Structure formats: structure tokens, C-alpha cells
Amino acid sequence: MLSTLIWFPVLGAIAIAALPLRQSKLVALTMSGFVLLWTLWIAHQFDFTNPLLQRQEYLPWLEPLGLNYQLGIDGLSLPLLMLNSLLTWIAIYSSQEETERPRLFYSLILLVSGAVAGAFLAQNLLLFFLFYEVELVPFYLLISIWGGEKRNYAAMKFLLYTALSGALILVAFLGLVWLRGADSFAYEALMGQSLPLWIQIVLLSLVLVGFGIKIPLVPLHTWLPDTYVAASTPVAILLGGVLAKLGAYGIFRFGLGLFPDAWATLAPGLATWATVSVLYGATVAIAQKDIKRMVAYSSIGHMGYILLGGAALTALSLVGAITQMVAHGLILAILFHLVGVVEAKVGTRELDVLNGLMNPIRGLPMVSALLVLGGMASAGIPGLVGFVSEFLVFQGSYSVFPVQTLLCVVGTGLTAVYFVILLNRTCFGKLDNAIAYFPQVEWRERVPALILALTIFFLGIQPTWLVRWSESTAIEMVAATPTVTHSPIAQVSD
Amino acid sequence: MDFASLAVQLNAGTIVPEAIVLITLMTVVVSDLIIGRQASAQWTPYIAIAGLLASVVALFYQWDVANPISFIGEFNGDALSVVFRGIIALSAATTILMSIRYVIQSGTSLAEFITILLTATLGGMFLSGSDELVAVYVSLETLSISSYLLTGYTKRDPRSNEAALKYLLIGASSSAIFLYGASLLYGLSGGETRLSTISASIASAGLAQSIGLVIALVFAIAGIAFKIAAVPFHQWTPDVYEGSPTPVVAFLSVGSKAAGFALAIRLLVTAFPLVSEQWQLVMTTLAILSMVLGNVVALAQTSMKRLLAYSSIGQAGFVMIGLILGTDAGYSSMVFYLMVYLFMNLGAFTCIILFTLRTGTDQISEYAGLYQKDPLLTLALSVCLLSLGGIPPLAGFFGKLYLFWAGWQAGAYPLVILGLVTSVISIYYYIRVVKMMVVKEPQEMSDSVKNYPPTDWTLPGMRPLQVGLVSALIATSLAGIFSNPLFTLANDSVLKTPMLQQALGRSKAPIAKQMAPTISQQLSLQITEVSTKKAVSLPKSMVHS
């Protein structure tokens, strides 16, 4: 029944594009709502104690190529599937009623959602690659048709970077399968370790760079600020909330899962790389004058924690990393959504112009309050979901990479700095009464933010509901990897 | 020699598909003469299409034929040639579908156009199976001369004339070079013209290392590379593609190219096994140059036909990867790619013809905002171009996947990586066209699109265009996802072809032994060693010691 998650949105997309339906938003919303419910039902049936693949589906497809239709979920993919279904629904809900060319828009969003679900579910390397590449053109169109200024430039940059990332990943996959002498790209068949270490390292590096573009990690990130800023709000939510997770998921599933030896060898380097990303993202975000750009750079920093958790490779840090993917997806979605609302109402994203939106009468009090909540969650304030995941990552990584972890903790401090700047300028201060004739904020704009805020808050005080999905899978993944030599400080801290 | 054994040796049944095309051709010519131009234009194209499809059906029955050698070794109708002949016939049929309206609108005679096109098809089909130097040259010239005529068909258009003249001059010199190479082969082998015996004769004469053989190889490759438009023998392509009538370009880029590849496989594998390292090296160079130059120069094009010209150079580079590998998987993925290329490239050309007929231009900038006026055309052209760019889940993606996977298995890592990189580059220029059509706002619409007339499918010749468009769209969308039958066909064609199995067997002895008994009527083309086997039914030409 996992196929439903892929094909229902895809068929919906074709139906919306082909049939002359008037209410395409309503149709898309219904379809994605159904997919969301279906995902929740699958999650309900999920067996927490089983670390292995569940609900597998298999259909022979292109045997000569070793490409078969193989699906399955485990603790790594299920949280991300739920995130994908939720954010698709949110993105469709939060899109403007008067979106131009609605049929194409909603059909592309549904198509992307189905393809991303397919990538999370695929248990065959080529099938994953296929789904990974399918979202390329729809996203290109989503950015370049409905984007802001510089959308053509941003969309083309996104397209070329992603296509290059796909090429690198394909080379790594082809290389792995050929060197292993396998005749199929099935994931299970390729697990385990038999390649010489240096080959593993080469292939892992290709995978890391390929997915590193998607995450993105510094210095492969230059497409991100342009793209996130140029994309319209629903598209930015999907880009930052879901698509970036595809990169992180790919690194875990195909980097860590397929090259455990090389991963253990490269882990210190990866942790350092993650730290560089975190610090770079945070410091550059501080310097931004555009709030959407600031949020975009914050995303670079936060994706770094995921890599840190993966590099440390303790059960705790891995659970933290998976949790961070979901947390970051939710937080980024609420921030992009609110920034979009602010831009729509106030007409600017400039920090120097924005002021005093918290004003209860003439400002945007509810939006500002939610923005404060989103900023707090992003900065890792306890009681919100961001804290849970960051704490898990740091707690799990400290014993392995104390220095890098401490530097990343400094990174969260810097996060607090730029969010204080953002919130202070945007929400507080004195509203200039002369210009403060903002349009009414509609419920359509409040509801997505409220849902996300509630989720962020609820998972913050009840983290088990988030953590339990991935626990056994994380333990299993750690067990499958050779032990990393602990540094002396680790023993002290234990 | 009694009549019965002569009939066996002629084995004329092998060329039934070509005979059907020939009969169709005669019917078209004669009926045009009898009933006149206006009346014949009503139905000659459909006769031609029916004839070509009948020829494809006849090819289907040639698939498992016991003895494919005919005309005392002139023609070899093995499975590989069957596939290539099928590709050429289908591309000609599709070309006719798209040319009816175009030729009518250009005010020239349709029946003559179809006649020349069918002649070219005939040449291409014979070329795919020619197993002997003279037959190769004659069919090559049939194809080439008809192609020159086709490029200059719209004779009142100066650009068409220019294209024809350029094509004729460069083509004639390349033919001459090829002929010179063939004559060298003839001399070196001591008077052999059959491809399969040439190399054995050269080897037994102790000339395997001679410089003459290398020169013959270089000249032969020059002739082939001209046909498949591989860099640096591609200079004619952009000008000829830009000036010629668009349906002709479609045929040149698919049918003629497929014939060139058929010739390349057969000639290089059977006549030049002694210098296989050299020809692989030369072809590798050509493939690299084609992929890089074709895809990079395409970035700068402003005319749609020129864009497709350079893109087809790049595509030929991809196909050549399969040729170079010299493995089963390499050849079959090459054949598969050509089949897929047939759908997507002809689909793209159908769209361009439709657009040109509506607006009279083929500038890329004139496509701006087309989605508003013609969604079907926009969809079809986008799908075909994205498929050429290798975007999943379209057919071109799977074609490239098969090719790259075969390349990787054969250890051609640099080629595959270069192929991937140039594919990424190619996405840029394909998506540029898609962007023009889909992304542009209504106010950015080009003048041509603003004045875009509503499509009237009832005009004569429009229905076939519509049929071609929709079927190419469907095939391009689905041929990849359901590629099992097509790939099995491609794979079988390689496995059933004795020529390729022999060539592969030299490097992989156990496989050759495995394959040998399955091939009925095995013909021994002993290449490196002196022949000890005797061919079953062809005593004269096959035995040598």
C-alpha cells in the first residue's frame, strides 16, 4: 500500500493537468489530505520494535538493468514521509487563491510530492535515482513560473546544480554495483562491506558531494539562497522542508548504509565539515538584510547538525539527526510561510524597513507571535521541537567529537543572535502609523502556521512521539557500522 | 550450376521488405503519372505509409529466418540488420506523416517527394544489410544522392539550394574518400569484396600490421562519420539542417543516421577486426568530440533547427559509446537508444514542423508563451526535448541509462562520466526551449505566437501530422517505462547476429562456445585463424584455407 503514496499524487497531478476542473486547489487539497491520512494510517500500523524494512513491495520491472520496483519503509524514511505529506498539504493550503495557471501549479506540486515520496520509499538504487531526478523539471518550472525577481536565474541555477548532483550520484551507484559485481541495483543486495577501503572512500565522496549539493553543505550551497528567495512561499516550503531532506536522507541511506567502513574513516572530516556549515550558515545569516534570505541561510546551518549527528554515529546522535530533519522541516516551513505573509501584507522583506509588527491594533500581532515562536524553535529554545533534536544530536555527538560539538553549540548561540535581530526589527519597536495600512490577515494564512506551530509545540513537549519511529532503526544502523575509536575526552565525559 | 542451387544462393526472400518498398515506390511514381499531381496527392502518401508498414511487417517475419545470407553474400539479413531496417522504415513512415502538409504548403509535388524519400529509405535499408564492399557503396550512394535531392527539394528557396549544394559537395567528397578506403581494402585482401572474408585474407597475407590497412580504416571511418555527423565530420550538419525542408532534416537525423550506424557496426566489426584497437581509439575520439562539441555549441543556438542539428551531433556521440564498447550490452543499448531516439527526435521535428507551418519561423525566441495558444504542441515538444535531455521517466532517460550502464560495465569510465557531464549541459539548452514555451508570461508572448492561428486539423495533411505528434508523444513518454520488450528486441538482435557473436567470441571464448550452437546456419567467418569449418549451404564463397 506504500505505492498509494506515490501514485495517488501522480495520478492526481495528471488528472488536474488534463481535466478542465475549476477548483483545482480544492482537488489538490483533497488529494494531498487523503495522502496525509494514508501516511498517518501507515505510521499507525508501523512496528516500532522492528528496525528492518516493513511493508515491502516488489514488482519486477527492467531486469536487464537491475532496476526493479522495490519499496519499503523503516525508521529512517517514515518520519520523512510524514513530513512530506504534511508539508505538501500545508504548501497547497497556503498557496494564494488567485495563483496564476492554477492547474499547472497544483499538478506540479502533487507530482513533486509523489516523486519525493517515491525517493523516500525506493529500495533500489536506480529507482531512487529515477524519483530523485523526476522532481528536477517540475521544481524548475515551479520556481521559474511562480517565483519572485531573479526567478529565471535562480531556477536555472537550481536545475544545473541538481542535475550535476544527480550525475555524481549516478556515477557512484554505477560504480558501486559494478565493482561489487552485482547484477541488480537492489539496496539490500548491496549492503554489507566487501570493497577495498579506498574505493569505498572514493564512492562515498561522490555520494557526499552529490547529496551535499542537495542538502546543501558549504561550499556547495550557493544555489540555495537564490533559489529559496526567488521561490514563492509554497514552493520554498517544499524546497526547504522536503527536498533538502532528500539530500540528508540520501547521505544516510546510501552513504552511511552502503559504505560503513569509509564512513567510519571519514567521520571526523564529516563532523568538521558539518561544523563549518553550521558556523558559516549562522554567521552569514547574521549579516543578511532580507528576512527570507536570513531564513534561507539559517537552513544551511541547521542542516549541518544532521551531518554532525550522522558522523558521530551513536544511536542517540543518529536519532537526533533524523529528528532534526523533521524538526527543521517543520520550523523552516512555518518561517517561510510567515515571512511570505509578512511580505504579502507589508510589501517588503527588508529588515531596515520592517518595524513593530507586534502592534496589536495596526500591526500583524498573530503573525508576529507565531514568527517569534518559529524563531524560538529554530534557535533551540526548550519546549519546542528544535530543542529536542538539537539536544539529542549534541548529547549523542559530544562523546565522539567534543570539539566539533561544542562549536556547533556555539552555532546555535549564533542562531539565537540572528533570530533576535530578525524578531527585534520585525516584530518589536514602534510601528510607523503612516504606512501601517496592512491588509487583513486571512484565516487561510493563519491556519497553516497554526497547525505547524501546534505540531512544533506538541512534539517539543512530547518528543517520544517523534523519536520513537527511528529508535530501533538507528540502533541497527549503528550496529551495522564498525565502531569508531573514541577520543580520550569521551571516556572522561562518560 | 543448376537453377535450384542458384535460387538457394540468391535466397531472394531475404529482401522481401525492400521489395515491398520498391513496389510501393513504383506505385507512387506510376500513379502520379497516370492520375496527375493534384489527385494523387490525396492518397499516395497513405500508400507509401502502408507500404512502409507492410515492409516492417515483412521484416518481422525475417526475424527468425534460417539463412539470412542472400545474393551470394552480397546481402546479410541477420537480426541486427532487421532491427536497423525496421528503424529506417519506421522513420521514413513518420517522415511522410509529417511531410504531407509541409510539402503541400510549399507548393511542390508530393508524389515526387515521397518517391525520393522512399528511394533514400531503400538505400538505407540495403545499407543496413550490405555485406560486401560494392553493395555497401551502391546502397550508400543511393541513400546519399536521394538525400541531396531531398535537401534541395524546395527549389525556390535559396537556403534549400545552398544546403543541397553544400551537402552534395561535402557528401560527394566523403563518398570518394570512402570508396578509396574500400579500394585499399580490396587491394590488401587480394581481391576480396565480402566484408567477412576481407580480414581473413589480409591476415593470411601477413598484412595485419600494414599501414595500408590503417589508412583504409581511417578513410572508411571518414565516410561513416560523415553519415552519422560525428565531429569533426559534422560541418555540413548545421547549414544543411537549417536550410533543408524540415521533414527531410527529420529523416536525415534519424533514418540516415541509423543507416550510418548500421554500416559502422558491420564494417568495423567484420572488416576491421585486425585493427580493432585502432578503430576503437578513433571512434572514442570522435565520440568525445561529438559529445563535447555538439552539446556545447548547441548552447549558443537561436534557431530551433540548428539547435536540433547540434543536439543530434551530441546524441550521435552518446550512441557511439555503445559502438565502441564492443560488448553485447554495448551493442544492444546502442540499438535501443536508436529506437528511442527515433521516437523522441521525430516527435520534436513533428512539433517544429507544426509550429513552422503555423507561424513560418523556427527561431527559439518566437516560441515564447506558446503554452497559451497551443498546449498540445507545447506538451509534446517539451516531452520530446526533455527526453532528449535524459529526464526521467521519459524514454531518453532509460536509453542513456542502458548506454551508461553498459559503458560502465565495459570499463569505459571516462566516456561514461563525460557522457553524464555533457548530458547535464544538454539539459540546459533543452530546458531553455521549454522555458520559452511554458514559463513566459502572456505579456512576454512573441509576435508569432500572438498571431498564432487556431489549429485547423481538417486541412489536408493535418490529420497525419496530428497522428504523428500524438503517437510520438505517447511513445516517448512510455517507451522507457515499458522498455522491457524493446530492450529484449535490441538484445536479441545482437545475440542472434552471428557476425557480432563471432567478433565478441574472439575476446570472450567461453561465451562464443555457448552461443555458437544456438545460431542456426552458423557461418564460419574465421578471422584470426585459418578456417577449418565449412559453411553449410554456401560452398563457394565461404571456404578458404
From TrEMBL, chain A:
<feature type="transmembrane region" description="Helical">
    <location>
        <begin position="6"/>
        <end position="21"/>
    </location>
</feature>
<feature type="transmembrane region" description="Helical">
    <location>
        <begin position="128"/>
        <end position="146"/>
    </location>
</feature>
<feature type="transmembrane region" description="Helical">
    <location>
        <begin position="198"/>
        <end position="217"/>
    </location>
</feature>
<dbReference type="GO" id="GO:0008137">
    <property type="term" value="F:NADH dehydrogenase (ubiquinone) activity"/>
</dbReference>
<dbReference type="InterPro" id="IPR010227">
    <property type="entry name" value="NADH_Q_OxRdtase_chainM/4"/>
</dbReference>
<dbReference type="GO" id="GO:0016020">
    <property type="term" value="C:membrane"/>
</dbReference>
<dbReference type="GO" id="GO:0042773">
    <property type="term" value="P:ATP synthesis coupled electron transport"/>
</dbReference>
<dbReference type="GO" id="GO:0003954">
    <property type="term" value="F:NADH dehydrogenase activity"/>
</dbReference>
<dbReference type="GO" id="GO:0012505">
    <property type="term" value="C:endomembrane system"/>
</dbReference>
<feature type="transmembrane region" description="Helical">
    <location>
        <begin position="69"/>
        <end position="92"/>
    </location>
</feature>
<feature type="transmembrane region" description="Helical">
    <location>
        <begin position="104"/>
        <end position="122"/>
    </location>
</feature>
<feature type="transmembrane region" description="Helical">
    <location>
        <begin position="229"/>
        <end position="252"/>
    </location>
</feature>
<dbReference type="GO" id="GO:0048039">
    <property type="term" value="F:ubiquinone binding"/>
</dbReference>
<dbReference type="InterPro" id="IPR003918">
    <property type="entry name" value="NADH_UbQ_OxRdtase"/>
</dbReference>
<feature type="transmembrane region" description="Helical">
    <location>
        <begin position="400"/>
        <end position="423"/>
    </location>
</feature>
<comment type="similarity">
    <text>Belongs to the complex I subunit 4 family.</text>
</comment>
<keyword id="KW-1133">Transmembrane helix</keyword>
<feature type="transmembrane region" description="Helical">
    <location>
        <begin position="363"/>
        <end position="388"/>
    </location>
</feature>
<feature type="transmembrane region" description="Helical">
    <location>
        <begin position="447"/>
        <end position="467"/>
    </location>
</feature>
<feature type="transmembrane region" description="Helical">
    <location>
        <begin position="299"/>
        <end position="319"/>
    </location>
</feature>
<dbReference type="Pfam" id="PF00361">
    <property type="entry name" value="Proton_antipo_M"/>
</dbReference>
<feature type="domain" description="NADH:quinone oxidoreductase/Mrp antiporter transmembrane">
    <location>
        <begin position="122"/>
        <end position="415"/>
    </location>
</feature>
UniProtKB/TrEMBL annotation, chain B:
<keyword id="KW-0813">Transport</keyword>
<dbReference type="InterPro" id="IPR010096">
    <property type="entry name" value="NADH-Q_OxRdtase_suN/2"/>
</dbReference>
<feature type="transmembrane region" description="Helical">
    <location>
        <begin position="15"/>
        <end position="36"/>
    </location>
</feature>
<protein>
    <recommendedName>
        <fullName>NAD(P)H-quinone oxidoreductase subunit 2</fullName>
        <ecNumber>7.1.1.-</ecNumber>
    </recommendedName>
</protein>
<feature type="transmembrane region" description="Helical">
    <location>
        <begin position="134"/>
        <end position="153"/>
    </location>
</feature>
<keyword id="KW-1133">Transmembrane helix</keyword>
<feature type="transmembrane region" description="Helical">
    <location>
        <begin position="165"/>
        <end position="186"/>
    </location>
</feature>
<feature type="transmembrane region" description="Helical">
    <location>
        <begin position="247"/>
        <end position="269"/>
    </location>
</feature>
<keyword id="KW-1278">Translocase</keyword>
<comment type="similarity">
    <text>Belongs to the complex I subunit 2 family.</text>
</comment>
<keyword id="KW-0618">Plastoquinone</keyword>
<dbReference type="GO" id="GO:0031676">
    <property type="term" value="C:plasma membrane-derived thylakoid membrane"/>
</dbReference>
<feature type="transmembrane region" description="Helical">
    <location>
        <begin position="206"/>
        <end position="226"/>
    </location>
</feature>
<feature type="domain" description="NAD(P)H-quinone oxidoreductase subunit 2 N-terminal">
    <location>
        <begin position="11"/>
        <end position="100"/>
    </location>
</feature>
<feature type="transmembrane region" description="Helical">
    <location>
        <begin position="331"/>
        <end position="355"/>
    </location>
</feature>
<dbReference type="GO" id="GO:0042773">
    <property type="term" value="P:ATP synthesis coupled electron transport"/>
</dbReference>
<keyword id="KW-0874">Quinone</keyword>
<dbReference type="Pfam" id="PF19530">
    <property type="entry name" value="Ndh2_N"/>
</dbReference>
<dbReference type="GO" id="GO:0016655">
    <property type="term" value="F:oxidoreductase activity, acting on NAD(P)H, quinone or similar compound as acceptor"/>
</dbReference>
<comment type="function">
    <text>NDH-1 shuttles electrons from an unknown electron donor, via FMN and iron-sulfur (Fe-S) centers, to quinones in the respiratory and/or the photosynthetic chain. The immediate electron acceptor for the enzyme in this species is believed to be plastoquinone. Couples the redox reaction to proton translocation, and thus conserves the redox energy in a proton gradient. Cyanobacterial NDH-1 also plays a role in inorganic carbon-concentration.</text>
</comment>
<dbReference type="InterPro" id="IPR045693">
    <property type="entry name" value="Ndh2_N"/>
</dbReference>
<dbReference type="GO" id="GO:0008137">
    <property type="term" value="F:NADH dehydrogenase (ubiquinone) activity"/>
</dbReference>
